[in-house]
Design brief:
2 domains, 22% strand, FAD/NAD(P)-binding domain, single chain, five-stranded parallel sheet, 375 residues
Length: 375
């Protein structure tokens, strides 16, 4: 069984590792990194699964037709498998989908996350209670102020924090946090935990990284790990015959496949394109908002997007219980085609299931594609 996964983000990665575990030959094709590269350091996996399946019928979890217990079981399998694969590819994670921690960003603001890099995990805010924390600053960096961060940790979270500043003269004028990427961590003061801005290497015991807004070293590291088994190629066309997708074309090369997983992302990854109406560019699949084709939503949807731009992020493909994309009439045009990740509509990928949806749908799509499970 040969499975082609189209996409460059965490959904594609999850689909690939799942399909390989089933014994499939897997080829991952991506023209560029996906929205995963914008990862800020904390993965939110899932919120209240029972509430989702009972109250959000358009959510990708609900459309799988599984109850909360079955979804939980699948996440119990998918998250450790993902963590193991990423550790082999150079990025160690800690945490699990059932527990949620709070982690400070470079401004001292708390961000929730279920799974974080091992370099971030010691900085869980509740675990810092009663500890003295040095917030490491770099004099040449202009978009991060360690003194302000330390003050925020004190005032917002009751942590005994203080600023410790160093100089790195070789940094460029007007350096930013991203310029710290790959540099060895400066020595930390004794007798305290040390919070570093992200990007440094060689952190010692008693040190941890803060989260950061994109572009973030956390996102770069994650994308580097994901890209190790990825072929850099843009899929320009998918060929289909007799209700099956038969091949993917990249430039002047055509690759045949027994099954294909679309993990192409939304607007950033190119999985959806917006002209006058949002469309899926490879096969003309149905694109939906709140269960209705966007083509018939008309000016109402345009008004909603004007009032709240995040409305557009809930637009996407609609799938059956085996993650086969539907056409506008609700039929399944291709029995060996699967979709996963942000290309699916019905959820907010900046919310509490932001990583859970691409990980779980990728995991299931890869398995079903490798098994030839047409449903």
């Amino acid at each position: 069984m040969k499975v082609i996964v189209v996409g460059g983000g965490i959904a594609a990665y999850s689909a690939a590792i799942s399909a390989r575990r089933e014994g499939a030959e897997v080829v991952v094709l991506a023209k560029a990194p996906g929205a995963t590269a914008l990862y800020a350091g904390g993965m939110e996996i899932a919120d209240d699964l029972d509430a989702i399946v009972k109250t959000q019928p358009d959510h990708p979890f609900s459309r799988l037709g599984m109850d909360a217990l079955r979804l939980a079981t699948e996440l119990d399998n998918a998250i450790p498998a993902l963590a193991l694969a990423l550790e082999k590819d150079g990025m160690k994670l800690e945490g699990g989908w059932k527990s949620r921690g709070l982690y400070a960003d470079i401004h001292g603001v708390a961000r929730p996350a279920n799974v974080v890099p091992a370099t971030v995990a010691p900085g869980e805010l509740r675990a810092l209670a009663g500890r003295r924390v040095a917030v490491m600053g770099v004099r040449e960096v202009g978009d991060y102020d360690a003194a302000s961060t330390a003050q925020a940790l004190k005032e917002l979270h009751g942590i005994d924090a203080f600023a410790e500043e160093v100089s790195i003269p070789e940094l460029p004028t007007g350096a930013s946090v991203t310029d710290l990427y790959g540099r060895r961590a400066p020595a930390a003061p004794r007798g305290a935990l040390t919070a570093y801005p992200p990007g440094f290497t060689g952190l010692l015991d008693g040190a941890f990284e803060l989260l950061a807004s994109p572009p973030s070293p956390h996102g770069w590291r994650l994308q580097q790990a994901i890209a190790l088994s990825m072929a850099r190629a843009e899929v320009t066309k998918l060929e289909a015959a007799d209700g099956r997708v038969t091949s993917a074309q990249t430039g002047d090369r055509t690759q045949g496949a027994d099954a294909i997983v679309l993990a192409t992302g939304q607007h950033i990854g190119g999985g959806l394109l917006k002209d006058h109406v949002t469309r899926e560019p490879l096969l003309g699949l149905g694109v939906f908002y709140e269960g209705r084709p966007v083509r018939v939503a008309g000016t109402r949807l345009q008004h909603l997007e004007y009032l709240d731009p995040s409305t557009g992020f809930r637009i996407g493909l609609r799938t059956d219980q085996r993650l086969h994309p539907l056409d506008e009439e609700g039929a399944t045009p291709y029995r060996n085609l699967y979709a996963a990740g942000a290309v699916l509509g019905g959820y907010d990928y900046a919310g509490p299931c932001g990583f859970g949806v691409p990980i779980l749908t990728g995991w299931l799509a890869g398995r079903w594609a490798a098994r030839g499970d047409g449903g």
